[in-house]
Amino acid sequence: MEQLKLQSAELTERLEAERERLSRLEITRETAGELLARMTDGSAADEPTPSAGDASPFAGAERQVVGVLSVPQWQLGMG
Fold this sequence. Notes:
1 helix, mainly alpha
């Protein structure tokens, strides 16, 4: 009986750790989605502009989301 209680406690700890991890992943996914939406709809324009000393060589460049490029799976003779 004691061994089962110990296993149950260990599993409960693991479950709680995984729930915390899942929560962090959900927050990360939501944040990434919000950032992607801001990049694609142009609402990032309301952010403060950097000072002259912090100017980026890419300042004013248009941002575009690039799609996924799929390539065929490698086969013998493809090089």
